[in-house]
Amino acid sequence: MKKTLVTLIALASLVIINFSIWSYVNNPLQIQPWTKTTMGVTFDPMRKQDTQTSNTFPSEADIDSDLALLANKVHAVRTYSVLKGLDKIPELAAKHNLNTTVGAWIDGNLEKNRQEIETLINVSRQNNPKIVRVMVGNEVLLRADITAEQLIEYIREVKRNTWRPVSTSETWDVWLKHPELVAEVDFIAVHILPYWEGIAAEDAVDYVFDRFHDVQKAYPNKPVIITEVGWPSDGQPFKHATASRPNQAKFLREFLNRADKEGITYYIVEAFDQPWKKSIEGSAGAYWGIFDADRQPKYPMDEAVLAMPGWEHWAAGAAVFSFVLMTLFLFTRRSLKLPGLLFFGLIANLAVSVIFWSASIGAQQYQTNLTIVFWGILILMQVMAATILLIESLEIAEVIWHRNTARTFKPLTPTADFKYPKVSLHLPIHNEPPAMVRKTLEALAKVDYPNLEVLVMDNNTKDPAVWEPVRDDCERLGPMFRFFHLENWPGFKAGAINHALEQTAPDAEIIAVIDSDYILSPDWLKSMVPYFDNENVGFVQSPQDYRDRHLSTFKSFCYWEYAGFFNIGMVQRNEYNAIIQHGTMTMIRKSALLEVGKWAEWCICEDSELGLRLYEAGYDSVYVKDSFGRGLMPDTMSGYMTQRFRWVYGAMQIIKAHWRSFLPTKKSPLTPAQKYYFIAGWLPWFSDALALLFTTTSLLLTAVILYDPIHSELPSNVFLLPTVGLFSFKILRGLWLYQARVPCSIWQSLGAALSGLALTHTVAKGTVQGLFTSGKPFMRTPKYEKQGPLFTGLMTIRQELLLLILLGTAIGSMASIEHFDNFSGRLWIAILSVQAVPYVAALLTLLISIAPNYGSNKSALAAEELDNEDKNP
Prior knowledge:
Blueprint: H1 2-25, E1 38-42, H2 60-70, E2 74-78, H3 89-95, E3 99-104, H4 110-124, E4 131-138, H5 140-143, H6 148-160, E5 166-171, H7 172-177, H8 179-182, E6 188-191, H9 201-218, E7 224-229, H10 245-262, E8 266-268, H11 278-281, H12 311-330, H13 338-364, H14 369-400, E9 422-429, H15 434-445, E10 452-459, H16 464-477, E11 481-486, H17 492-503, E12 508-513, E13 519-520, H18 524-528, E14 537-541, H19 553-574, E15 586-589, H20 590-596, H21 606-616, E16 620-623, E17 629-630, H22 637-658, H23 672-707, H24 716-741, H25 746-758, H26 760-772, H27 790-796, H28 798-816, H29 823-850, H30 860-865
Parallel strand pairs: 1-2, 2-3, 3-4, 4-5, 5-6, 6-7, 7-8, 9-10, 9-12, 10-11, 14-16
Antiparallel strand pairs: 12-15, 13-17, 14-15
């Protein structure tokens, strides 16, 4: 009870800390207030659902309600067009005591231009004293829609037909380039938008006034009015300019106070957010309003500003979800010490908060049906990444802060009266070097066990020069050894050992299986068979171990990569009776094997599949991490990749065949812990497949972004957890657990991490192909394989190289474009760089695998002959 109370207090404390961090990040920003009436705003009454190409446009009632909202907040509005009912704005604005600068939209459509000009003239002739200025066009020369001469003709026509001041709006640099245009207008209507020039927010107001004064100095005899000035509250960064709610508030308040002091006439762009502008200006184009598209003020102009309004709801949701998640996970782990609970709780709070934070970003933005689907997919992938992160965090907590239980097994010493059950040891071989198999057989002949038979099953080896020496060795070693040569035999390895089962002595009670390259310790059977005295034990497993790690740096890296699973994962899974059975160094109760239906010939990982069926039948397992036999590792990168692909593909076959056993129902034959550890064991492979999906998505998005940087947005925040977060945690987890459980140095841990990363793409392929294809043949891991030339090795990793080249090109292209010279751009480059690491690791591991023997004809067999360890396994 006391432990439970302490745990609850600790978890509640984490939730409170999490909420406090949300509060700190969203601390109200104290910015210089603006307490006066704003001089003017640009005004477009279009609603959230409206677009420029649609036939729908705001009604007169909509326009009137907007102007009523602006009354007493601004003195004037500026419009851009007089078509589609917008010619009513000056009259409606006057009702609310608002001045109007009336504008006509001019572009390359000369017929529509004529309508705009004629309507503008008619509006300007109205007896409306609230019409203070007339504008012919908006950034016409900037867009190069028509020539300066054509624009001047329009201006002259309007001036001939109205007594009101006439001008056109252009950016400050266009005015400086066109003095002939200045000569035609009554005042200079200048746009100064530092965001679109990539100016940082803290320098933006100074920049506005510097450019304003430049125009004044260039044309001292013409009044200068700022007809567009502002900052977006959301959207993609532009060079050094970051769009955000705090930056918009800071810019506007600082500008308004300074403009008031200097007596400048200005129009803030704009009154209301215009989501339709996304298609023209990119995502930032939708967020320039001081009101959002729902006509709600984004923040008060005279009070503190919140970066994320309503953050309390998101923080509370993250806190509640985190607490529920921690409770569900941790109260099923009674053997976990308090530091482990706190560690997992910290990661859970962080992961959940990142997901809620990402969701809050999408919720604050204007979405279409397509972007809702896009965000939904991204959030789903984040949830998948967070699930993997939590499971790997729990593994760390259990490994580092776990109390030993009754399932911590050690080798046994048989009692004097122990009755040794007969063991039938099955040795399947296929096209194996006879010299290697001879070492295995000679070691078996020295096994210290009084009741043993050895069945050697040669499976479809065609060359008599390869299998006949093995037959002869079996005859030489005596009647304990029986040799079978199977031609055109179905079922691959599983088919061969199923045949061995049929040939097994009737009185045999235990089936043992080892690989053809394994040299056994003489005491393996005596140390492990006594565990079968417990009738619930269905199989007993010893770790795979290897004797050739000293032959090359590549093999050393591979050795320690394998060692991690058998010293960490298998040990922890054994605590919950949920180990993975392997086809070597394993023993099975014969009656249990026959009960569940022999070896599965449809699965290329028949060993793991059998272990799962034994669990489904209610049997227990035993895992002892002491090494009793050592084999040979793959000699080449190709062999290493092929072996891992087989393991992954076979696991996906098992998932497809046994998925019902993992459902959270009472009918499932597996315990909750077994379900969890099997799923948790497979999730890192799904993580690699997810990483490939994110990498592919990143490359596609980068291509789109580079093609159209203005209208594209970098989804860096959403990609952080599944890429940088998962990768960083994966490295940290590996190094931490290796130092805790694997007897190796930090450099050997790094070598294991490198070789493991090199297999990322292989694992991803195996996962995807295993889920969506069937019928892959059994892929034997070749022994004594000669190392090929560099070109052959590069062809082995050609897919990895292609992705590495694409990612490198994407990184270089992003870095070379000034538009992305900002935090968001650098963050995206960091994400692409992290995604490139596994492919760099594949290249480095390949080069390391080739380097020791490159240019040499020395074979692995020659090296093996020098291995004195064979004599003392």
